[in-house]
Design brief:
five-stranded antiparallel beta sheet, 50% helix, eight-stranded mixed beta barrel, alpha/beta
Length: 711
């Protein structure tokens, strides 16, 4: 069979098959290979479940490691092969479509837990053997004289055949006897081992209690003790052991000998160290990863004694462009070079550099004077990035944006500090990049609020938290209500009523503007139809609805508009869609095509904020617009008497140009009667602003329309 298995269960069986083939040659068992596979299958399922669980469960990996010992996979090579198999194939066959980096981190932690569980189970098995040996030694001394020879023979068989090292010494520390396993551990001759006294076997990494426990035992104050201890081999290398020392008494109960049982844990210790390193360091750059960084940061933030911390959060500017243009291999080489440079910037005590992922790095400094040190650290980082990086014959300029957070330890947690640094870094990037910024609590609060609004937007639309207010459009010739502009509002549960400037940019950024804009159009068209039904004698009232640039490029714009107009029974001539001038600057035919189709249907297209987009006036002829909405900045000078003559000339010229192109002119922001009169004299067609009415509920427009109809 070729190709990957079809379903999760097939992939799980495949993983168990690979595992059994790896460990079967080094397993002491009477089972066949397929039978061993059946034993490993539930262990594989346990690992698969732990890999995909919501939270990490170290007990799952420990249980699997212990089960390997129960399955007689006690050869050290069996553990090594099992861990290699899990490392290479667990994510491949059991990870499905989850995030690969997170799954590989989870897999590494499971390997660590397996090794720990394996060690624990093997230690319990060894302790059982040790207990049996100790019991055999005691039995050998207490048996009757006629059975002494047989007992000694049994003890000798256990002593020589045991897989763990055994040594016997007197209470003065003279080594009297050792078995072959212990000699093999030390790699020397029996004389080389027996020629030394127990107190000479010291090692710099001995725990403080090791020799205190030894002294208590030889004095008869303790029957046994168990410690982890290192020894020097004759070649100078370290031998790590699980050491159990027991006191042997004579027939009268007086201390006579000491019995040492040693399990060689050197390979397992090295494996644990390797797994720990891999779990806490970035595979590409060798820098500490997010896990180790958070450990160090948490330790720094929990320090007392007036300690402070400084954090630089670095994100490379334009790194995606390098990846897209030169390939990921070149991007990886760039990251390695950047990591080396950053490492050279943080060499002082209390400083470290880590890679969080992608092109994001952090540098941490701790101590009593981090206010000055963190600025110096940021300067060193920026200077280190100045020199171009040479890759594949190209010189690449490296730029970066840094967010700096500094403060006393003990006031904030790691997540809060990193969030503030991240927000500050993006503030530096928004300011043009290649710079660093200091954290600002007020800016952080605004960013957090903005993020909260962004995440709440989708649910807000589903919960009906949006509503529409309408601002009348008044005909300057006779003062009649011509229609209204629909303005969406958000009634937020915590922040109250929010204007469009507070959430429309967020909706555009997330793409929610398309369903939100469709909802606004539907509600506004329905309202316009109700106005026509209730106030037919007031004349036709038009509805103006804003379109965002995202809606312009959405393929369903024309069809959605047609469907809504037909469903609500409103003529196309009663609808005006407003598009900002900046959205149409340099617009090609593809972008203008839906607007042309709508205009051909009878929908008016208004060019909103006209005069702010620096567009070429000659382009007006190619745009399918029928109305210019003059930006309020041109008419503010008319609020007072006498009006600004420059503004008068500009408005007069725009109105003349618009009318020569058969375009109507609407003016926004009319706030005084003098302003309205001046605009009427200049020939503007319609106006809106607080002089006439503020945006409000649809009933207010009903009242204004009735007043016009009966006035």
């Amino acid at each position: 069979m070729t190709g990957e298995p079809d379903g999760p269960e097939d992939r799980l069986h495949r993983f168990a098959t690979i595992w059994s083939r790896a460990v079967f040659p080094v397993t002491s068992t009477s089972l066949t290979r397929p039978e061993l596979e059946q034993q490993l299958l539930p262990l594989a399922r346990r690992l698969s479940d732990a890999l995909k669980a919501r939270t990490f469960d170290a007990a799952a990996g420990q249980t699997v490691g212990a089960a390997l010992v129960a399955a007689h996979c006690t050869d050290p090579e069996a553990l090594s092969r099992s861990l290699d198999c899990v490392d290479a194939y667990l994510v491949l066959y059991c990870g499905e479509d989850g995030p690969q980096e997170a799954l590989r981190t989870r897999s590494a932690r499971l390997q660590h837990a397996m090794a720990a569980g394996y060690a624990g189970a093997l230690r319990e098995r060894t302790l059982a053997e040790q207990e049996a040996i100790s019991q055999a030694a005691l039995n050998a001394r207490s048996t009757v004289a006629e059975a002494l020879h047989a007992s000694e023979a049994r003890f000798r068989a256990v002593f020589e055949g045991a897989a763990i090292g055994i040594g016997i010494a007197d209470l003065e520390g003279n080594i009297l006897q050792v078995n072959g396993a212990l000699l093999r551990m030390f790699g020397g001759s029996e004389q080389g081992v027996r020629g030394r006294k127990v107190p000479e076997w010291t090692h710099p990494e001995d725990a403080p209690q090791v020799w205190r426990l030894y002294e208590e035992l030889v004095r008869g104050e303790r029957e046994h003790y168990h410690v982890e201890k290192a020894f020097y081999r004759p070649d100078g290398t370290a031998l790590w052991t699980n050491l159990t020392v027991s006191l042997l008494r004579d027939a009268d109960g007086r201390p006579q000998y000491q019995l040492a049982l040693m399990e060689d844990t050197t390979e397992r210790r090295l494996l644990n160290l390797r797994l720990r390193y891999e779990a806490t360091h970035d595979a590409l750059t060798g820098l500490p990863n997010r896990t180790l960084f958070f450990e160090r940061l948490e330790k720094a933030l929990s320090a007392g004694n007036d300690q402070r911390f400084g954090l630089c959060y670095l994100d490379l500017d334009g790194f995606k462009t390098i990846n897209d243009s030169l390939g990921h291999a070149a991007g990886d080489r760039l990251l390695v070079e950047v990591a080396d440079r950053l490492q050279s910037c943080a060499t002082a005590p209390g400083e470290m550099v880590a890679r969080l992922g992608g092109d994001e790095f952090v540098a941490l400094t701790t101590g009593p004077d981090t206010e000055r040190e963190v600025d110096a650290l940021a300067d060193r980082i920026m200077n280190a990035l100045v020199t171009p990086v040479r890759i594949d014959g190209r010189e690449l300029t490296v730029r970066g944006s840094i967010g700096i957070v500094e403060g006393p330890a003990g006031e904030r947690g790691p997540a809060e500090v990193l969030r503030s640094a991240d927000i500050t870094m993006y503030r530096a990037k928004s300011a043009g990049g290649n710079r660093f910024e200091l954290a600002d609590p007020e800016a952080d609060a605004r960013a957090i609020t903005r993020h909260g609004l962004t995440t709440a937007l989708p649910a807000a639309l589903d919960r009906g938290e949006f509503f529409i207010e309408y601002q009348p459009l008044v005909h300057l010739g006779d003062g009649s209500v011509h229609g209204a502009e629909a303005l969406v509002r958000w009634l937020h549960p915590q922040h109250g009523v929010l204007g469009p400037d507070q959430f429309i940019p967020l909706a555009e950024h997330t793409g929610l503007i398309v369903p939100l804009g469709r909802w606004v159009l539907e509600q506004s068209v329905r309202q316009a139809r109700q106005w026509q039904e209730r106030h037919a004698d007031a004349g036709p009232l038009r509805i103006n609805v804003n379109l965002s640039p995202c809606q312009l490029t959405h393929p369903g714009l024309v069809q959605d508009t047609v469907d809504i107009l037909e469903r609500e029974g409103l003529d196309a001539e009663a609808l005006c869609l407003e598009v900002t001038e900046s959205a149409l600057i340099g617009a090609d035919d593809d972008l203008l095509k839906p607007l042309r189709r709508l205009a051909e249907m009878g929908v008016d297209i208004a060019l909103d904020d006209f005069g702010t987009g620096y567009s070429n006036l000659a382009n007006l002829r190619r745009l399918p617009v029928s109305i210019l909405k003059l930006d309020r900045s041109f008419t503010q000078g008319m609020q007072q008497f006498p009006a600004d003559p420059v503004d008068l000339k500009i408005v007069e010229g725009i109105v003349s140009l618009a009318h020569s192109l058969d375009l109507a002119v609407t003016v926004e922001g009319v706030e005084t009667g003098a302003q309205a009169e001046q605009l009427r004299i200049l020939g503007c067609d319609t106006a809106q602003g607080w002089y006439y009415a503020r945006p409000g509920p649809p009933e207010r427009l009903h009242e204004l329309a009735l007043v016009d109809a009966t006035g």
